[in-house]
Amino acid sequence: MKRYYSIDYLKGLAAVGIMVYHLTIWETGPLNMDSALGRFGIFGVAIFYIVSGLTLYLVYEKKFSFEKSAILQFIQKRFIRIYPLLWLVTFISIYLRPKMPAMIDILLNLTGLFGFVKWEAYLSTGAWSIGNVLAFYILFILSLYIIKKVKYGIWILGFTFAAIFLYFTFVVFDPTKTLPQQWTNYVNPLNQYFYFFLGMLMGYLFQNTQLKVINSLIIISIGVLIFVFYPANGDAIKIIYGWNRIVFLVSCLLICFGVFKISGKAPGIIHSILNLLGEISFTLYLMHPIVYVFTGKIMLSNLLKHLHYPPHSRYILTLVGSVIISYLVANYYEKFFANLLKK
After folding, report:
1. Using CA atoms, how far apart are residues 265 and 263, in angstroms rounded to an integer?
2. Which residue, 331, 332, 318, is CA-closest to 16?
3. Cβ-count burial of 293 within 10 angstroms (0-12 exposed, 13-18 middle, 19+ buried)?
4. Residue 287 lies in a domain
5. How far apart, in whole angstroms, are the C-alpha atoms of residue 131 and residue 269?
6. Domain-embedded: residue 1
7. Alpha carbons 72 and 328: distance in angstroms, whole number
8. Buried b or exposed e, range 1-34, using 16+ CB within 10 angstroms
9. What is the DSSP letter of 243?
10. Contact 51/256 with Cβ under 8 angstroms?
């Protein structure tokens, strides 16, 4: 499969956007959904899911054989990618908690089974989406099998997952309650898988479609304009319930599709920065909440608490520190385990 640098860039920018969203709400409080950043805090993960489904489809749609060895190899690669970092952030999160979590929740997190049986039981901030992804990997194998073996399989799956998505969107969610009050339903992998599947569908339909860069940029711009200026406000549930969710989904699809159809690299240092962010995007997503907590502890330590910090110091230090620490974790800790587990 050819390298889609533009997708890596989007992953990196999405991770940074989610980090900025989290730091903003931790420093200033919840954002209204008339804010572009508030909207991105909700749909940034959806963009991750879409491009993840797209990437996996492009990688495996031709070479996946469904033999036992191929399935085990796929699981091994996903295990190496997910679990060492999941273990790290889980143990650190347990250490930071004032009270020891229930042993069953610890076991569910260390095994990743929380993503299948108790998806709200994640211990590290943001790890609910990792539980989703683990469930998606199983659904991906099943989906790819049906696409390859069943006539019109992709459309049967599309209607099925769309129906589930619409059921959550119009029936399960209650617009009179806040999103935190309905969080268990929101982080249910069945509520989220349609994003991932749409990424697969994008690869299925448009893998060989060629677009001029200007046309891709126009599509991206339309998606961004819809995302930023579509009228919606209030609690996050206002963009998760009903037709508003469909509109924001369309805007995300336009952005992802436009980015997908841009080939080649960005010039010079822009490529280096965006490619770096893309490579550490998964790590950055999980590490920045931990860096934020430790930054606060260090700033308030007996040694440093007497210092007069400029405004937003913790925000800026976390922003920079998260990128540096994520780079180190990705290139040393994660690669160490990757090499160890491959032996």
Report:
1. 7
2. 318
3. middle
4. yes
5. 34
6. no
7. 29
8. eeebbbbbbbbbbbbbbbbbbbbbebeeeebebe
9. H
10. yes
Burial level of 274, CB count in 10 A (0-12/13-18/19+)?
A: buried
In angstroms, the CA 173 to CA 240 distance is 8
Helix-, strand-, coil-residue percentages of the chain, each rounded to 5: 75, 0, 25
Indicate the pLDDT class of residue 52, thresholds 50, 70 and 90. Answer: very high
275 Cβ contact list (under 8 Å, min separation 6):
5, 8, 9, 12, 265
What is the Cβ-side half-sphere exposure of residue 325, based on CA atoms within 13 angstroms? 20
Q: What is the DSSP letter of 264?
A: S
How far is it, in rounded angstroms, from Cα 201 to Cα 339?
A: 33
pLDDT at 174 over 80: yes
Chain-centre distance for alpha carbon 96: 23
Read off the pLDDT band of 106 (50, 70, 90). very high
C-alpha 31/C-alpha 162 separation (Å) is: 29
Q: What are the tokens at 327? A: 């780079």
Residue type, 66: F
Q: pLDDT digit string (tens) for 125-163?
A: 999 999 999 999 999 999 999 999 999 999 999 999 999
Question: How far is Cα 131 from Cα 129, in angstroms, rounded to an integer?
Answer: 5
Tokens of 60: 């495996």
Tell me the pLDDT of the chain averaged across its residues.
94
Rounded mean pLDDT of 88-113? 96
Residue 322: helix, strand or coil by DSSP? Answer: helix
Domain span at residue 320 reads 6-342
- Tokens 């999941």 appear where? 86
Residue 1 confidence class, pLDDT cut points 50, 70, 90:
low
> 47 is written with which tokens?
């963009």
Q: How many domains does the chain have?
A: 1
What pLDDT score does 311 carry?
85
Q: Give the integer Cα–Cα distance in Å for 46 and 252.
A: 8
Given a contact cutoff of 8 angstroms between Cβ atoms, the answer to whether 244 and 238 are in contact is yes
